[in-house]
Amino acid sequence: MTSAALSSAGQDAGVPWTARRRFLGNAACCGVGVALGLFESPSAATPPAEPWPADVQALWQFAWQGIDAAAVADMHVHLLGHTAAGPDDDEGAWIHPRTLNPLAFGDWVRRVAIEHASGVSGRRAVLSAAYLDRLATLWAAFPAGAQPMLLAFDAAVDEQGRVDEGRTMFRTGNGYARGAALQRGWGWIASIHPDRPDAIDRLQAAAAQGAQAVKWLPSAMGIEPSARRYRGFYAEMARLGLPLLSHAGEEKAVTGANAHEAVNPLWLRHPAGEGVRVIVAHCATLGQAQDLDHPQRGRVPAFELFTRLMDDASLGSRFHGDISAITQVNRSTADAKALLQRTDWHARLLYGSDYPLPGLAWLTSVPRLAGAGLLAAADVAVLKRLQSLNPLAFDFVLKRRLQWQGQGFAPGVFESRRLLAPQPAARTTVTVQGLSATTCDETLPR
After folding, report:
1. Which of 214, 219, 220, 416 has its CA 20 to 30 A from that of 54?
2. Which are the contacts of 71, defined by CB distance < 8 A and separation ≥ 6?
3. Burial 187-196 (b: 16+ CB within 10 A, else e)
């Protein structure tokens, strides 16, 4: 499978036709939502300064029982900004200009929705700072020690290692993510396209600078997880102990290379086979993919293929899943029930919010989850109040409250830092006669 085979053909005014067609086919309701103002949800407003109502506070405190806050990491926190002139500035963040053009309807409406979810609508002049300030305000509700893991996001790159601006919807550089995380004492996850000519150098630098995993969205970035040319990259990831957090299953939020078959969960056997710990984003709970093991079956639910990987004893314990997005309205409640009941998987599941998407109140329906038997009816009103007050806290509590036939997620699912790469030794910079020297002090606490 080559990049050319993965990529969608045909461009019109810089807007991929396949992106427009797929968007109109499966997400036209979002456009209607924009027109009707449905993205203007209470959870996009600035959180109030006054204390939460007593019932909300009680539910929040209950959610933390039995959990070590210092071990908690939100594995799936997207980072949005607009500081760079182009997509190859590793110290900046960039959004493609077509997302500002309503004629590029799919990408435009995605940007509108994400900005609403982030609480930064109408603040493009200060987008980067506003996004981080909003995230910091929401995260301030969490106990000391808990960390969001900020996701860098690399550009689409062709097989010759050239950045493809036309197929890059947005890019968040590793330097930008690292700086934002260090400024606030948070964690960060690098993103490195393995077709970059200096990919291994970038990988080593990211690990030395404190990255605790590598994030891929293969369909948007144009990555072929099965490519043999990546074996050296995988070997170095394994040596460094960096897990791969990779999207699998259908992708609707981010266009780009439109390499839709690249998000087949089964392709992720290849990095796992080279010794890399793989974290499947969202547990592949959306869409279908080709059953590569049994081609006669055609396309099957992506979650079925994720299940096969999790149960594959030959892969040892190298396969994991993050539970971000599993409660969204476009995902099957049957998959959430399966994840709850598979207690033998819980040691390999990790908490993630998919922020800023919890900020779209309509995207997670508490009554729907209660109707499916996943929530107690008494929790519905309280959770909806918390959803309007703090969507990040809401997502955490919601997943703590999920149950099926008496079984919830084990507390360890939320202590995600146990599966991240060890942080490098702390470093201090001292100046001696005008020269800077960096020295190793001690290992950072985990």
Report:
1. 416
2. 145, 415, 416, 417, 418, 446
3. bbbbbbbbbb
Whether the CB-CB separation of 424 and 211 falls below 8 Å is answered with no
Q: What is the mean pLDDT of the chain?
A: 84
Question: Residue 331: phi, psi to the nearest 5?
Answer: -120, 150
**Alpha carbon distance 391, 366 (integer Å):** 13
The pair of structure tokens assigned to 436 is: 């800077």
**Alpha-helical segments (H) within 92-217:** 105-118, 127-139, 174-184, 199-208
Contact between residue 152 and residue 84 where contact means Cβ atoms under 8 Å apart: no
Q: What angle do CA 87, 78, 89 make, to 5 degrees?
A: 20
CATH code (residue 252): 3.20.20.140
CA–CA dist 283, 336 (Å, integer): 10
User: Residues 130-137: contacts with CB within 8 Å, 24+ apart?
Assistant: 131/79, 131/80, 131/81, 132/81, 132/180, 132/184, 134/46, 135/77, 135/355, 135/356, 135/392, 136/184, 137/46, 137/47
Residue-wise pLDDT tens digits, 278-323: 999 999 999 999 999 999 999 999 999 999 999 999 998 999 999 9
- The pLDDT tens digits of the residues spanning 62-114 come to 999 999 999 999 999 999 888 988 888 999 999 888 888 898 888 888 888 88
What's this model's pTM, rounded to 2 decimal places?
A: 0.85
Which residue range forms the structural domain that includes residue 331?
3-443
* Total number of domains in the chain: 1
Residue type, 229: R
- Distance set, CA 142 to CA 46, 75, 196, 273, 394 (Å): 17, 15, 37, 37, 11
User: Sign of dihedral through CA atoms 213, 214, 220, 225?
Assistant: negative
* Contacts with 242 (C-beta within 8 Å, 6 or more apart), sequence order: 190, 203, 206, 207, 211, 212, 213, 214, 276, 421
pLDDT digits (tens, 9 = 90+) for 341-350: 999 999 999 9
- Report the alpha-carbon distance of residue 318 to residue 244 in Å, rounded: 10
Contacts of 371 (CB under 8 A, 6+ apart): none
The string of pLDDT tens digits covering residues 203-234 is: 999 999 999 999 999 988 999 999 999 999 99
Name the nearest CA neighbour of 37 among 99, 97, 112.
Answer: 112
Residue 342: helix, strand or coil by DSSP?
coil
3-state secondary structure of 280: strand
